[in-house]
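Hi V.,

You were right to ask for the full record rather than a summary. Here it is.
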Amino acid sequence: MSKLHDFLNEAGIFYLATADDDQPKVRPLGAHVEEDGKEYFTVGDFKEVYRQMVKNPRVEIVAFEPKTRRWLRYTGKVVFVDSPSVEEKIFQELPHLRQMYNDETGYKMKIFTLEDATAKILDMQGNVEELELK
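Predicted structure:
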């Protein structure tokens, strides 16, 4: 597992920042999986966050790990992917999502990763650890 993935697991909940025209929007997320050294996330196709990312794919993910009092900044460009294996991994880890994303509801899960990305772990003393991303 990568340091990025481990940090997100430790934090549990992380926050995704997008732009709605000139207004920043931030919301909590928790779904993520790692495959082939890349981190993948998911949002619903029926949500504003999805439309915001389509319009402006530059986003930032921030997570805070309370035990160490460190936080993660993961910034990059959203790229949506069609990956049945990642989708299945997400459903295995979060089976309740099958109740939301299915043919009956008509809602689709949109899977994304970040490209041209940087990731840093920071602490309150100003220390910065740059993470190597695949």
